[in-house]
Amino acid sequence: MCSTGNQDTEFLPERRSLRIHGHSTTIRLERAFWNVLEELAASEDLSVAMVVTKIYDHCQFANQKNLASCLRVVCLKFINIGL
Fold first, then answer.
1. Enclosing domain of residue 51
2. For 7-26, how does the pLDDT look when each residue is reduced to its tens digit (9 = 90+)?
3. Whole-Å CA distances, 29 to 51, 79
4. Number of structural domains, the chain?
5. Which long-range contacts (CB under 8 A, 24 or more apart) does 19-25 make?
6. What is the reported pLDDT for 83?
7. Do the domain assignments include residue 18?
8. CB–CB of 25/59 below 8 Å?
9. In 10 A of CB 80, how many CB atoms?
10. Which residues pair with 30 in a beta bridge?
């Protein structure tokens, strides 16, 4: 289940700073989730920041305050069923 070698970097947390509605924020996610967000952004012809903003808006509407958790759930849904 857990692999070794190059994939070990997928578990490392990575911080990225971006703007959501003009406000600067930093999000910390494991590299594997950033990879999925990059794939999701490419599939929608958007930047990662734009995808994160869309997810942020949805999470606020759904009254989910933890953006990192929302991002992880969206990544899992994208991998499992596609959005």
1. 32-83
2. 689 999 999 999 999 999 99
3. 15, 16
4. 1
5. 19/49, 20/49, 20/52, 20/53, 20/56, 21/53, 25/67
6. 56
7. no
8. no
9. 7
10. 13
- Integer Cα distance of 20 and 80 in angstroms: 26
Does residue 23 lie within any of the structural domains?
A: no
Residue partners of 32: CB distance under 8 A and separation at least 6? 10, 11
pLDDT digits (tens, 9 = 90+) for 34-71: 999 999 999 999 999 999 999 999 998 888 889 999 99
Residue 73 inside a domain? The answer is yes
With respect to residue 36, please indicate whether it lies within any of the assigned structural domains: yes
pTM of the full structure: 0.86
- Per-residue confidence band for 3, with pLDDT thresholds at 50, 70 and 90: low
Q: How far apart are CA 26 and CA 60, in angstroms?
A: 17
